[in-house]
Design a protein that fits this description.
By secondary structure, the chain is mainly α. The chain contains 14 helices and no strands. α5 packs antiparallel against α6, α5 packs antiparallel against α9 and α10 runs antiparallel to α14. The radius of gyration is 19 Å and the shape is globular.
Length: 384
């Protein structure tokens, strides 16, 4: 098996644990957490924001972890931290307990999202960049799909069992990730560990990349936290219905990520990126304006495919900034976007708490995502 493919699979397993389970498995649990008295509606939203705050901490800590453990070592530590957070969440010890472990899982994702993509893009051969990044981001979709399938079934017994089932899935994926990451030689690990990140050059593209990722992060919040809750408590459906749509969300992430990556290789990342922003923005807005089942299905599939947008964005960063500057620009984008996303998360909580309506929440997200399309279109090629 080619090294780039093995590392792409490892990246997929890593993102499955960190993002697919560590972040996105929380959404289908929210209605049950509220209904069974673990959290109130406001506490559930706030605990979700705790994941964003943790992400920010992880992004800040990433360089220090890299210097001490190397990129691969930092990824391994992050995988283990996510597993501990998932297992700890099986205990019904209240709002602060859940929020703390959501933050720990978020911190792990902050490291994973920087270095999993850095390793994947560095080893991807020419002409395979879109495929390599799409394979890696497929892990997010697979994690969402597994959570959407397993959580409703396990919730029939208890919330704790649902958390435990997610933890078992994460453990198995961690084994795959550890296997794949062994493809990085110790010599290469030491070289990356000893090489400092280059300083960021504040060009128009760097600013545009950071802005686009920030808008993407803000636009995704409604579906990340409120989508299943909207379907279940907002529209009066069952937890199984919400789980079904979270499964569709995962299917969209798996299929959409691959299709977006292949499309970017064919039509170019410069066209595919603003196109993806525009389509996802439509998927966020439509379900609160039109409540038909077919619209809800399309929304789950389209917004579920959002890892493909991130894959295209990471590939575009690689193209515009070069493989050496990609990690530092990607990290800067993570720091800025997550700082603003954390604040934006609280803003969404306040909007929902003050209006008791999902409409302004989702329309606000769509507006952010639509603005991202404009910024993505304005990125331009430059010599580096």
């Amino acid at each position: 098996m080619p090294i780039w493919l093995r590392l792409s699979i490892a990246g997929a397993a890593t993102l499955l644990v960190g993002m697919g389970l560590g972040r996105f498995s929380y959404s289908p649990l929210i209605p049950a957490l509220i209904e069974q008295g673990w959290l109130t509606a406001t506490e559930a939203g706030t605990a979700g924001v705790g994941n964003f705050v943790g992400y920010l901490i992880g992004a800040f800590a990433a360089p220090s972890l890299r210097r001490v453990f190397g990129e691969v070592g930092a990824l391994r530590l992050s995988l283990l931290a996510t597993l501990i957070a998932l297992v700890s969440s099986t205990l019904p010890w209240g709002f602060l307990w859940i929020t703390f472990w959501r933050a720990v899982a978020g911190a792990a994702v902050g490291v994973i999202m920087i270095y999993a993509l850095s390793i994947t893009t560095r080893f991807a051969p020419r002409g395979k960049l879109g495929l390599a990044t799409s394979i890696t981001y497929t892990g997010v979709g697979l994690g969402i799909l597994l959570a959407g399938t397993a959580v409703p079934l396990l919730l029939q017994f208890s919330v704790s069992l649902a958390w435990f089932g997610i933890s078992i899935t994460g453990f198995l994926a961690t084994l795959v990730a550890f296997w794949g990451l062994r493809a990085v030689s110790r010599t290469n690990e030491r070289k990356e560990q000893e090489t400092a990140h280059p300083s960021i050059a504040w060009s128009w593209n760097a600013i545009a990349i950071i802005t686009a990722r920030t808008l993407f992060s803000l636009g995704l919040i409604p579906h990340t936290i409120y989508w299943v809750d909207y379907l279940v408590r907002g529209l009066g459906n069952s937890n199984s219905f919400g789980g079904l749509h979270w499964t569709l969300f995962g299917i969209g992430a798996i299929c959409g990520t691959y299709l977006w990556g292949r499309l970017a290789d064919r039509i170019g990342f410069h066209i595919a990126l603003p196109l993806a922003f525009t389509i996802v923005a439509s998927g966020i807005a439509l379900p609160v304006l039109i409540h038909e089942n077919w619209v809800l299905i399309i929304s789950s599939l389209i917004v579920g495919a959002q890892p493909g947008l991130t894959a295209i964005l990471s590939g575009r960063v690689h193209q515009l900034m070069g493989k050496d500057k990609m990690p530092i620009v990607w990290r800067a984008a993570a720091l800025v976007s997550t700082t603003i996303q954390a604040a934006g998360g609280f803003l969404y909580v306040l909007i929902f708490a003050s209006t008791s309506s999902y409409i302004p929440v989702f329309l606000t997200g769509a507006a952010f995502m639509g603005t991202g399309a404009i910024i993505a279109w304005a990125m331009r090629e430059e010599n580096h």
